[in-house]
Amino acid sequence: MIDQDQLKELIKLMVDNELTELDLQDESQCVSLKRQGSAVPQPVYVQPPPAVMGAESGSGAITPQLDTTSVGMPSTEDPQAAIESPMVGTFYAAATPEAQPFVKPGDQVDPDTVVCIIEAMKVFNEIKAEVSGTIDKVLIDNGQAVEFGQPLFTIQPA
Q: N or C: which end of the chain has fewer CB within 10 A?
C-alpha cells in the first residue's frame, strides 16, 4: 500500500506539471490518479509502449470526414470536414437558452468564430471553428452530452 507521503509527492508532481492523469505500476502496487482541470486535457506520455513509438496523431479539432467504404481513410471525393469536440461535456448551441445559436447551417465562419459552448465540470468553454468555411450541418442537439472527438458540425472548408 502506498503511504501518505508518497501520495502527496505524486499529487504535487501532477500539480507542478499540470497533469490530469497519472498511472504508475510496479510488481507490487498500482496507482492511478485523476484530477479535474480547467484546460483541455493533453496527453502526456512518460514512457510510451514500444509498439506505439513514432505513431503520434495530431490533436486538431478539425479532421476530414471518413468514407465508410474505406475504414480509416479520408474521403477524397467529399471536401467536407468536421468540427469535433475537444472535450467531454454538454453541448450548448447558444450562450443562454433565450439567445440565438452561435452558428446555423449556411453561416460563414473563420478560425476565431465561436461555434458553440461545451460545459465541462461547471466550466463553460467556448469552442472555435479553427477553420474558415460554411457550416453545413449541426450534428448535436442543444443540451446533449458529447464525447472527446465527437463531430459537432460538418463544414465546407473555404
A: N
Indicate if 77 and 124 belong to the same structural domain: yes
pLDDT band with cut points at 50, 70 and 90 for residue 140? very high
**Rounded Cα–Cα distance for residues 79 and 86 (Å):** 21
Please tell me the distance from the alpha carbon of residue 65 to that of residue 75, in angstroms, as a whole number. Answer: 7
Q: What are residue 32's DSSP bridge partners?
A: 23
DSSP 35: -
Distances (CA, A) of 44 to 18, 50, 59, 127, 151: 10, 16, 12, 22, 24
Q: What is the CATH number of the domain that holds 125?
A: 2.40.50.100
Report yes or no on 48 lying in a domain.
no
* Nearest-angstrom CA–CA distance, 30 and 114: 42
Same domain as 78, residue 150: yes
**Domain count within the chain:** 2
Task: Looking at the structure, tell me whether residues 153 and 90 fall in a common domain.
Answer: yes
Domain of residue 153, residue span:
65-157
Instruction: Give the separation between CA 142 and CA 92, rounded to whole angstroms.
Output: 5
Residue 1: pLDDT band (50, 70, 90) is low
